[in-house]
Write a structure and sequence with these properties.
The complex is a heterodimer of chains A (about 700) and B (about 190). By secondary structure, chain A is an all-alpha fold. Chain A is about 75% helix and about 0% strand. Chain B has a 4-stranded mixed sheet, with no helix packed on it. Chain B has a 4-stranded antiparallel sheet with strand order 3-2-5-6, with no helix packed on it. The chains are: A mainly alpha (about 700), B alpha+beta (about 190).
Chain lengths: ~700, ~190
């Protein structure tokens, strides 16, 4: 909590200058000593590296407190104000750019860093002094660049970037391998730096992390895609049975993947997440194994593979369906009936649930009776019709929604409404959100499984945050404008008040005075005249001696004055002796004071000159005013851009949702049609069956008639 | 068959760092399980919109920086600017809780630390705790830190520093440092040389 950061609006205290006062006060103040030290080149370099480190740590503070936007702002300020742009800072900047979703800018930063690092490695410049070696920085930059390129779909460039890596340390080995897998997918990756990677012994001793699991999963998937099921099987079995540990992460890992270690979560949540993650990898491998068996038509193997599949896994739906399907194939009818019923009930809006209804009805027809089968198909038909009606309702309401974010949202989707309007001086507000948009609408939830649509909704959320932020910037800019105007007025008043006094003349007058004193001091030094520096008491004594001498002169002739004269002479002698004794000290003191006066007069002259400059600094203020105006225009432009982009995004969402609805309708219509075809077939079978019974009964009737 | 329903949200939640790999996994699944009547395949995210959004973000960040510099130029010109920073080295013997700053015996700033802010300092971050204006000349800075010692007892540390303000910016860092020999923390003052 910040109690007081901005003290007041005191623009520039030097404007309150009062030269005469300064001269008076400082005449009795102590001497100011200035020590001028010329730094050597080595000291300058060390100081600049030192300050670079401090500025970097300033940004780091914001990063660790979770204020990524402010950290980025600090880096940018450091560069602009202090020319601070080391490789470490630039890599940090790129990581922050990734965090706030500026992927293209991050790519540019990493590209420039890559070039700079090549130079840095050759020249062995300042980077050698940082904790991370230039080699490691280059490696991280290349890996992150490749990751950004893959994310942007530029796999060819990513391959080129990865091929530049010749050596990979343990900490980055897995990342290097997985990026290669992604860049070369669906081909086998070319690991240019594999020889320099970890040797097998070292690798065997290192712990198996989730990342190793992902690498193996990808390898198994590749085998499966190429139809090499026998090669995939041992890999999947190993993944399924391995206890995967959370990977060790460096600062740079966390920076480029900040949400993988959310600092807001407590320890138990983290442990729970790690457990879920481990289970997810195991379950996924198990599901793939079963799926592989189904592809090979080894239904029994698939059935037994999924027999102990956990109920609360993220893959339960798929596993349950394959389990039911396999059970049906190996004629475990009781089991498959139960399982299809469970799939149908637990996932009433999923395609698998819909499909289960049909498969279930088919099995009822086969295993039970035609009537029961007919009822099952009728239930399925009702389900599809109901879904089609709901879908039409959803489409109607969604298409007429003015603000798509207000369409059946979950409460936590609205960080903007929770954001309080704070004072205009506090500008910074995170306008990047890690919360994924979610909704209460079942159909929209299903539609949001499409990454593109999810991204569009996320964009809408971010655009609203940006709008709120821009409005705050607008307030801030207005506040700056008011402040500038107030200070211009204040400055005008100060200038007006100061114009009454001619400081140049006052300083000149003081200078003259000083000159005359200096002359007196110089004459006294020349004549070695101690009385010049007499203090008040001594002055009184001198006055009294003078008066006494005059009195003696007046009474001369009337009285004997010898005694008086000798007494006055004695006193005068003592006083003169005292004055001459203290003469060198007093002379030195006066000279020192004169020197101080010189300095103070010089300072006063400098202050006066500065005041003149500040008085005439209209261009500075007008420059500030221009900048404020420019900011106002820029903010306005951005607000217009945001509004336009929001409209475009909303339109895109509408199109995507319409496509989703159409697709769902097609799927449901197909299921509906199938169910009706099947019903017709059942009816036909029932009719055939009835006819057969009729035929069986008919001869008897005919016989009875004949009788 | 929508095998990717839980997998995508799940893995994205538990580990975003390898989302790409998961995407590949899911892509394969989406293709391979099509025979069961799967979900429609999603097309890649629209480039134009995301690029435009990125561009706006970039502009907003630039505006932030411009306004910050504008504010500093207007309110805290270099000739009068004084900034005070706080850093913590290790923080084993002193868990920082608050800091109070006085310049020339006048309270100028105070800060109460949250757990996260304290940890940010202990991890090497430097916090700007005060930014203000001062006239040229000699000044005195007093900082009073409150916190908890290694055994959880409430404790205080204070430091006084004389400094001189000239035409350049003055930047003072208050470093709370652990002293291994005395098992207590000290506050050291460092003036930054720009």
């Amino acid at each position: 909590m910040r109690l007081n950061l901005h003290p007041n609006l005191d623009l520039n205290p030097s404007l309150d200058l009062n030269i005469a006062q300064i001269v008076k006060v400082t005449l009795i103040s102590g001497m100011i000593s200035l020590t001028m030290v010329m730094p050597t080149l080595a000291e300058t370099v060390a100081a600049s590296a030192h300050i670079e480190d401090k500025l970097y740590r300033k940004a780091l503070y914001y990063y660790f407190t979770g204020d990524f936007g402010e950290a980025l702002n600090q880096i940018s300020l450091n560069r602009q104000r202090f020319n601070s742009h080391s490789s470490r800072t630039r890599l940090f900047e790129a990581g922050l750019q990734v965090t706030v979703g500026l992927h293209h800018q991050a790519t540019e930063s990493l590209q420039s860093l890559k070039v700079n690092q090549a130079v840095s490695l050759v020249n062995n410049t300042d980077e050698s002094r940082t904790n991370t070696s230039p080699k490691e920085l280059r490696l991280i930059a290349l890996l992150q660049l490749a990751e950004q390129q893959i994310q942007q779909g530029a796999t060819t460039t990513a391959k080129q970037t990865l091929s530049q890596i010749t050596e990979v340390s343990n900490a980055y080995g897995n990342q290097y391998q997985i990026l290669n897998q992604l860049a070369y997918w669906p081909e086998l990756p070319v690991l240019s730096a594999i020889a320099a990677r970890v040797d097998s012994d070292e690798k065997a001793s290192s712990r198996q992390s989730f990342i190793d699991g992902y690498i193996k999963l990808n390898q198994a998937l590749l085998h499966m895609e190429q139809g090499e099921f026998e090669r995939a099987k041992p890999k999947l079995t190993e993944i399924k049975n391995t206890l995967w540990l959370p990977p060790a992460k460096t600062f740079w890992h966390l920076l480029f993947n900040p949400f993988s270690d959310d600092k807001n979560r407590d320890f138990s949540e983290k442990v729970n997440d790690e457990r879920i993650q481990q289970q997810a990898v195991n379950d996924y491998a198990q599901l793939l194994l079963a799926q592989m068996y189904v592809k090979q038509e080894r239904y029994e193997a698939a059935y037994y593979e999924l027999k102990d599949f956990p109920q609360d896994s993220p893959y339960t739906e798929s596993a349950l369906f394959i389990f039911a399907f396999s059970a049906q194939k190996i004629k475990q009818y009781t089991m498959s009936l139960k399982l299809f019923s469970v799939v149908k009930e637990r996932f009433p809006y999923s395609n698998l649930g819909w499909q289960a209804s049909l498969l279930l009805a088919g099995q009822v027809v086969d295993q039970m009776s035609l009537e029961e089968g007919m009822t099952s198909y009728q239930n399925a038909e009702r389900l599809y019709q109901q879904r089609l009606t709901e879908l039409a309702d959803f489409q109607q309401v969604f298409s007429t929604s003015d603000d798509l974010l207000r369409f059946s949202p979950k409460k936590e989707n609205f960080p903007i409404s929770q954001a309080k309007v704070e004072t205009a001086t506090k500008l910074m507000m995170p306008f990047f959100t890690n919360n994924v948009y979610s909704t209460d609408s079942i159909w929209l939830q299903k539609a949001l499984l499409d990454n593109e649509l999810q991204a569009h909704f996320q964009a809408l959320v971010e655009l609203d945050l940006i709008t709120a932020h821009l409005k705050r910037q607008q307030q801030k800019n207005l506040w700056l404008k008011d402040t500038l105007s107030l200070n211009s007025k204040r400055k005008g008043k100060v200038v007006e008040a100061q114009q009454g006094a001619d400081y140049r003349a006052i300083i000149a007058q003081l200078n003259d005075k000083k000159q005359s004193i200096a002359k007196i001091v110089a004459d006294a030094e020349l004549a070695q005249k101690g009385s010049v520096f007499a203090n008040q008491a001594e002055e009184k004594w001198l006055e009294r001696i003078k008066a006494s001498k005059q009195a003696i002169t007046l009474i001369d002739g009337n009285r004997n004055i010898d005694e008086y004269q000798s007494r006055v002479k004695r006193i005068e002698g003592v006083l003169t002796w005292q004055l001459q004794q203290s003469f060198p000290v007093r002379l030195w003191q006066h000279k020192k004071l004169l020197k101080e006066i010189d300095q103070l007069l010089l300072q006063a002259e400098q202050h006066r000159n500065r005041f003149v400059v500040l008085k005439d600094s209209a261009p500075v203020l007008s420059n500030l005013a221009e900048r404020i105006e420019k900011s106002a225009t820029d903010i306005k432009t951005q607000l217009i851009n945001v509004t336009k982009l929001r409209e475009m995004t909303s339109h895109k969402i509408q199109i995507n949702v319409q496509q989703f609805v159409d697709n769902q309708r097609v799927v449901l219509a197909a299921h509906l049609l199938t169910s009706r075809h099947e019903m017709a077939a059942v009816l036909e079978s029932m009719a055939k069956f009835d006819k057969r019974i009729e035929r069986q009964l008919a001869p008897n009737l005919q016989n009875k008639g004949a009788l | 068959m929508n095998m990717n329903i839980y997998s995508s949200s799940m893995l994205a939640r538990v580990n975003n760092s390898w989302v790409l790999s998961v995407c590949v996994l899911l892509l394969f699944l989406a293709i391979s399980v099509k025979s069961f009547g799967g979900e429609p395949e999603s097309s890649p995210t629209n480039g134009t919109l995301s690029t435009q959004l990125e561009d706006i973000k970039k502009q907003v960040l630039k505006l932030n920086r411009d306004l910050f510099i504008l504010e500093e130029d207007l309110l805290f010109p270099a000739s009068t600017q004084v900034a005070v920073f706080v850093s913590v080295d290790v923080g084993r013997f002193f868990k920082i809780d608050s800091v109070e700053l006085k310049i020339n015996d006048k309270n100028v700033a105070g800060f109460l630390y949250t757990e996260r802010q304290r940890k940010a300092l202990e991890k090497g971050g430097i916090q700007q705790v005060y930014l203000g204006n001062l006239k040229e000349g000699k000044h005195q800075l007093t900082a009073i830190f409150t916190g908890f010692d290694g055994e959880g007892r409430s404790t205080k540390r204070a430091v006084t520093h004389q400094f001189e303000k000239d035409d350049d910016v003055v930047m003072i860092e208050l470093k709370v440092e652990d002293n291994e020999s005395s098992y207590r923390a000290n506050v050291r003052v460092e003036e930054w040389v720009l």
